[in-house]
Known about the structure:
Strand content: 25-35%
Number of strands: 27
Helix content: 10-25%
Number of helices: 8
Shape: globular
Amino acid sequence: MERTEYNLIIIGGGPAGLAAAAAAYDAGERSILILERDTRLGGILNQCIHNGFGLHTFQEELTGPEYAQRFADKVNERGIECKLDTMVMSIGQGEDGSKEVMAVNEKDGLLLLKCKALILAMGCRERSRGALNIPGFRPAGIFSAGTAQRLVNIEGYLPGRRVVILGSGDIGLIMARRMTLEGAKVLVCAELMPYSGGLKRNIVQCLDDFGIPLKLSHTVVRIEGKERVEGVVIAEVGPDRKPIPGTEEHYDCDTLLLSVGLLPENELTIGLGADMSRITNGPVVNESLETSVPGVFAAGNVLHVHDLVDYVSEEAGLAGRSAAAYIKECGEAMCVSDENRAGVPVTYSGGVRYTVPSSIDASKIDKWLKIRFRVGDVMTNRKVVLYLDGKPALTKKRRVMAPGEMEELVLTKKLLSEYAGFASAEIRIEEDK
Length: 433
């Protein structure tokens, strides 16, 4: 008989889902199921054949598939059950407090699965051209950078020969190099913002090293061609992000790649009724990475878009351990709770855009907790200060901070014990005079 009840179900078999599963197993949980819509584990890393992964996690430089395989091996060695080619249709809550997952695949048909705890690890997707309202027709030759990456690295198909890239996210920067190495000519990378959205190392290694110009505060204002892209026009934009007349530049090209941001894949999360952040487009979580729905945890790019996959795995490990602890607290019965754990809200100012987690219950922290956040602009000579009950408890000096790179503060158990019972927590960015 097909098994339909598990203690823990993980939606997504990418780097977050795999790390969460291994961590939950190592924390003592044995009844685990991973649901993955693709034909193999690893998620988006399977098409990221460039190196640069694993420096933090494994202290060596790996390609994306190599990094993914390390965690897939951990899952396989532990005998954790996986269902591939399985699409999750909806998630909800049963009357007995269980979480219900409706999924479908070719072998089993429609599945209704129940579990005590659920980890959301669905990753993210690229913003499309339609969301950008670029004028012009819709000819062939317009691709998201991730689609182009899959075509080149997995399908063996070169999308075009003369390329313009809009947006300087990391996938776009990496594809500028990849297309060049495959024989294409990348003419320019245009970025709407006055700063790049990618890592500094990718700007240097993928653009500077190949002589590809990066034009900040520029955007595409016209796409030419009806059947196939024949050219694009870019223009400089002012502080209001509107094109400045007279600054237009024409590029003869046959391909336009879009690298204009990523969105957490959260339709299922919203359907569940979890509280969402309007900044990250991911769920609001506490120190255990638990959402506002008790027993539902989130990690990785479904929670907030990361800059390094190593941080995804680290975060997912916490989600896995937290889910295992939650299940242990439940005992044999399904957990029924109308109230999420009370915690102290984390507020912020001085240029911080958001924090993960959004609240802290110090009694639930084992050894340490990392608060991750992003800034809204390029900043120099600053200090990040954590105030507990209005007192500076932790200070970190930063020479440069940029929106493309995540920042973090590490709160140790020792630090929190010194401020036992704190009722307010705030992160401020201040001038470092």
